[in-house]
Amino acid sequence: MSSFSLAVRDSNTMLRRNLLHARRYPSLTLNLLLTPIVLLLLFVYVFGDVMSAGMGGGGGADRSAYIAYVVPGILMMTIGGTVVGTAVSVSNDMTEGIIARFRTMAIHRGSVLIGHVVGSVLQCIASVVLVGAVAVAIGFRSTDATALEWLAALGLLALVALALTWIAVGMGMISPNAEAASNNALPLVVLPLISSAFVPVEAMPGWFQPIAEYQPFTPAIETLRGLLLGTEIGYNGWLAVAWCLALSALGYTWSKSTFNRDPK
Q: Number of C-alpha atoms within 13 angstroms, CB side, residue 73?
């Protein structure tokens, strides 16, 4: 077999391994998935009228408008929360001895990381679909978006999932245990909370606006919001893609160098 064929075979084996782990131990995935669903219901049914009235410039409460605004941010939060499980899974592999065993086997070295990354991206997409189904059930509609914009939105979600997964893999590889991995990956959950996910950046205090604006989640959320609602995205689309490519390159280089480092 060629080197490429061996890499594909071994990566496919590692992907099946990670998907089987996720199926056999669903508690972590379910816990991470419940967080965005609870936040969605909380912000729509508890804070929805107040938030929409505050954003409407005195035009009164409109919960349906706020659902349309908040769902793209919740979908991005879903990805951030899901990849925390990837960091924990990678940390477990690194600390429980299975990676040392893989190093002695005649398998493609990169297949271990590829299996984690592809498995995580698939879990992210599945989680986004489930959260999106809940959003539709409580009133989210995307009537103005075209089929091309829907495809672009799905591509953006997959690209964000890929970028954050590589970062999570690197975090998991440097963590001494699962608890540390979960803590190290916490910024991937916190950053969406201080972005434009729940309120526009211009509605925030002046000193806080740069924190919300100059981070990867805000342009990604604004781009996704424009694609799902059929509105303009401006320069946010290019910014979102640039952030994703930069984070993917950083995470890949970090993870690969750490994995190839000789164990102490």
A: 23
Alpha carbon distances (Å) from 79 to 6, 17, 38, 85, 121: 30, 21, 15, 10, 9
Residue 144 is inside which H or E element, if any? none
Evaluate whether 85 touches 186 at the Cβ level (below 8 Å). Answer: no
Give the tokens for residue 170. Answer: 């690197």
Exposed, middle or buried: residue 257 (CB in 10 Å: 0-12, 13-18, 19+)? exposed
CA distances from 78 to 33, 183, 206 (A): 7, 17, 28
Longest pairwise C-alpha distance within the chain:
68
DSSP-based three-state secondary structure for 105? coil
Structure tokens at 128: 């986004």
Task: Report the phi/psi class of residue 54: left, alpha or beta, with left for phi > 0 and alpha for psi in -120 to 50.
Answer: alpha
Mutual angle of helices 111-137 and 63-95, in 10-degree steps: 160
Closest CA to 59 of 49, 69, 67: 49
Long-range contact set of residues 99-105: C-beta below 8 Å, sequence gap at least 24:
99/259, 100/263, 103/263
209-250 per-position pLDDT tens digit: 999 999 999 999 999 999 999 888 989 999 999 999 999 999
pLDDT in tens, 62-77: 678 889 899 999 999 9
- CB neighbours of residue 53 within 10 Å: 16
Residues 15 and 88: their CA atoms lie apart, in Å, by 16
- What is the C-alpha to C-alpha distance for residues 24 and 164, in angstroms, rounded to an integer? 24
pLDDT digits (tens, 9 = 90+) for 124-142: 999 999 999 999 999 898 8
